[in-house]
Amino acid sequence: MEGVVDGSGAQLVVAELVRVQGLLRQLEAHLSAPCSVELCRGLAAQIVALTDRSIGIATRSFSSASGGGAHFADTAPPMPALTSCTPSPLSDGSDHQPFRTTNAKKRKTTARWTSQVRVSAAGGAEGPADDGHSWRKYGQKDILGAKHPRGYYRCTHRNTQGCTATKQVQRTDDDASLFDVVYHGEHTCRPGGASAAAAKRPHAQTLLQSLSASLTVNTDTNTPLTPENRATAPPLQQQQSVSASPVASDSYGLGGAGYGDWRCCDGDLQEVVSALATVTSAPDHAAMDAADFMSYCFDFDPAVYGGIVGTPSFFL
DNA sequence: CACATTTGACCAGA
DNA sequence: TCTGGTCAAATGTG
Description:
About 35% of the residues lie in helices and about 15% in strands. The protein has helices at about 5-30, 35-65, 160, 195-200, 205-215, 245-250, 270-280, 290-295, 300-305, and strands at about 115-120, 135-140, 150-155, 165-170, 180-185, 215-220, 225, 260-265. A hairpin with an 8-residue loop joins strand 2 (about 135-140) and strand 3. It is an alpha+beta fold. It has 9 helices and 8 strands. The strands form 2 sheets. The protein has a 5-stranded antiparallel sheet with strand order 1-5-4-3-2, with no helix packed on it. Strands 7-6-8 form a 3-stranded antiparallel sheet. Among the domains are: about 10-60; about 110-120 and about 130-185, Single Sheet (N-terminal domain of TfIIb), CATH 2.20.25.80. The chain is globular and about 75 Å long. The structure holds a DNA duplex. One of its GO terms (molecular function) is DNA-binding transcription factor activity. InterPro entries: WRKY_dom (IPR003657), WRKY_dom_sf (IPR036576), WRKY_plant (IPR044810). Keywords: DNA-binding, Nucleus, Transcription, Transcription regulation. Belongs to the WRKY group III family.
């Protein structure tokens, strides 16, 4: 793995995971016998808080590592979750292009963006590390006030698979080894380089997705928070955890228990326990360093993505 | 030959 | 009018 993680951070993460596991066992014991809902709720809240802390530790540990190829977004903005990107026509109707029917040069609205990350160059390469998708450069612009031009990329499979994902890459002014990468839309094609990394974490996505859904329900309607009903959900800040972790605070669901009107659903606690227990009892989890933990729990691998950190895709 | 990159021009929103 | 996002012809590469 390319990313270098300091040992103290990894130890902290492991220690936190051990505590999570202990709480899960307590919760399991309470669930097997009649118990106070409030007690279970309290345990669940502790588990959530510990999970957030673990993620935060892993993030900080990873970002402070020196010499590695990975850097985390230091100012990751809150990310509006877009369930789909508006397909843009492949041709438009400018005056001198008779085959165009609509205007594709129309500037996209800011609401279309999905994530912004800061990544490092791969081993001194000219651009950021491979992010697992294949991109085709379609433009470059000098940006006012910026030292370096901005490159515009779209998914190579735009025409063959209708994938509308695009990204913008710009070298940062203050550190030439760092790049700001803004992704638009979502990939509807199959990634290439990420497949190997995905194979390393066979069930983490599914488990954490169900965990997220289980932890976050509307207490008025008793319905889980889903991409479909998210539009009617309360403001994002009511769903966020108090963790300072950029990953956790940008995520829906995990930090949702106990905050705002969206609380842990008692009936789903068993599922939560099962999901968290599986994650924390993952093979060799005790030997995981921070990077491995992040890789296992979230949909990215520093070795593949060069340290990209955004909202895990399954939270979008 | 197919595909990717470069680059000047076009265009719409601010 | 300025700025930034996109187009598309020209060019490069394997």
